[in-house]
Amino acid sequence: MGNVFTNEAYAKGNQPPQHHVETQVLTLSYIQTNEYQFSIPSYQRPYVWPDEAVLKLFKDINDARVAKEPNYFIGTVLTSIEQDEDGNGIYELIDGQQRTTTLMLIALAFKMVKVDSAIADTAAFKKQPRLQFTIRDQVQHLLGSLAGLDEYVFPGLEAIGENPYLKRIYAALQVLEQQVKALKYEDRILLGDYIFNHVQWVNNIVPQQMDLNRLFATMNTAGVQLEQADILKSKLLKQISNDKPLFDAMWLACEHMENYFERNVRKVFPNAPWNDIKAEHLAFFDEKLFVKNSGSTVHKKGLTIMQLAEQLKAGAESSSDEGKDNKLDNEQDAGSYDLEAETVYCRPIISFPLLLIHAYRIYLANRAVELGDGTDDVIPRVHADKLLETFEPLTKASEEEVKEFIKTLWQVRYQFDRWVVKWVERDDSDDEQLRLTYLTRSESSGKWYINRTQKELNELVMLQSVRNFTGERSAQYWITPFIAGLIKENITEDAQAIALLEKVDNDLSLAAESETQKTASFKQAKQQQPEVNSWQTNADYFTEARGTSFEHYWFQKLEYILWKQEADRHLEQFKNYRITAKNSVEHVYPQHGEYQNVLERDFLDAFGNLVLLSPGENSSYSNQAVKKKLVDFEAKPQYDSLKLKAMFKLLKEQNEWQETQIRQHQKEMLSALAAHYGDKE
Predict the structure, then answer these.
(1) C-beta neighbour count of 676 within 10 angstroms
(2) C-alpha angle 361/364/367, rounded to 5°?
(3) What is the pTM of this model?
(4) Are residues 303 and 286 in contact, defined by beta-carbon separation less than 8 angstroms?
(5) Do the Cβ atoms of 444 and 331 come closer than 8 Å?
(6) Which of 97-101, 156-160, 229-233, 464-468 is the most confident on average?
(7) Phi-psi bin for 613: left (phi > 0), alpha (psi -120 to 50), beta?
(8) What pLDDT is attached to residue 132?
(9) What's the pLDDT band for 619 if we cut at 50, 70, 90?
(10) Nearest 5°: phi and psi at 303?
(11) How far is 22 from 202, CA to CA, in rounded Å?
């Protein structure tokens, strides 16, 4: 592609003019044609992207390809041109090394799988890795050897396991290699070509003599960039002429995601009658509670947002003085209108822009049902980066439509905080877990507060964990119909919510070829039945020996079903068990065993011989014999996998793991799935 911002003179490592920062838009195709090399300087931190982030980027790019988006933008990097030993220009990465490393690892994964695409040759440059790691020779050897370069030697699994830097990079490569292998042959080529030609990033090149210390200081203190959600809010509020401060305040109560909704509402509307307000009163916006009783004059035309903010701030300051002695685990009165200053109590599984998109889909689904006007789903694919494009029709809609959307957003945020899992810290450690909470009320010094306490682990948490860690994670399509159903059916009990979520999940997982997850989830939100296959039709998928190409969803779904059926609930290994992010398919009967015993591929790659693990868990078992894996499994403080537990139970009963046991285990697992989906064998 052409370089849109800078002269071609800088393409092969020539210095930009003194005191100027030059900007380029790059692709892998461009850097290969123009012989770019990159280096990670010694002062940079190690590669730290977790498997989930690597997987999300890979799947996100593939989603963009499937959606036929012309380009996929991965961000901005900052570089300085240095000279290597041979006098060639090399771009030293000052900022953006994590995403650049990930992109090079993606290219290397295509090389490792031998995909017939130009991307496979991107990882190497002139008999060395294109991405150089200063003073990290082992990393160079790892990348060079996997790229097929003769002068580089693979460090070995033991060395990788002992070196955190190597371990993280190799784990990411394992995840990516499996993802590429899981694609159909033609899709591997199409995706490789798409990444090579259409994944873009901006390269800002600073002069070599620039003071990097001053540059870093400027980068860290330059202020907060205006977010898409802020721009959208401004556009929508422009459509409102009456009660604008009120709807601004409603939006504000919804947007701070790292605190619970009722706490945000109390901050924004401190003068509401909180001694009388229960959690369920927040299920929809009740103007009688939040406007008239607060003494607000927001109905007066011409009252500015700032005036409303000042009123709220004044009310908050007077009430907070009375509650200074309250503990942090109670809901406290506001001392400021700035919700971003709040202590982080929880971390959501999606961002506020993505929540806005789900709220908009629910709003559109409600209109389709109530008006019968054929209102359709949002046009772009569901992704936080598509926020402004997604909301373009609403920014041109009437005042009443915009107000109705913000009221819907309020309802969605309430249900989201009540029924959708969040990352919260455990009481006894700093580790985060996906949890739900109870809502209760307590009294302190004559004032009543809404409190949160953690719920016990239940089906809602486990099934949402399955959904959170599989499928199109940047969209989380299940959230739209789940919250739409919670609102429509006015669900208040766990059993009702579990039944709704299982119905949503089952239909999405069995969606027919004529449905996408997007179309199916929008039909569900409209209380329509999407086209689905029977379980028996879907069961044929498991008859083929697909190896690492099996969809990860089915492993995680089985974990949920086996968790519900578990008999040994008293064991500590089970009590400590959680459904977590796992991205590596392990052969229980090893592909390359210690004693080179041979098993036919039809059994080796069968679903009955496979289990989903994290790369760390996978490498800990390595290519050990099955009985050695059993010993390691039983020595762990918690189960790696309940499917693996079932496999080892069969191994202990029959004292071997061969074709007969693989076939029996697969039959048992498919029977469990069939029972869950309501089909008989």
Answers:
(1) 17
(2) 150
(3) 0.81
(4) no
(5) no
(6) 464-468
(7) beta
(8) 84
(9) low
(10) -70, 125
(11) 10
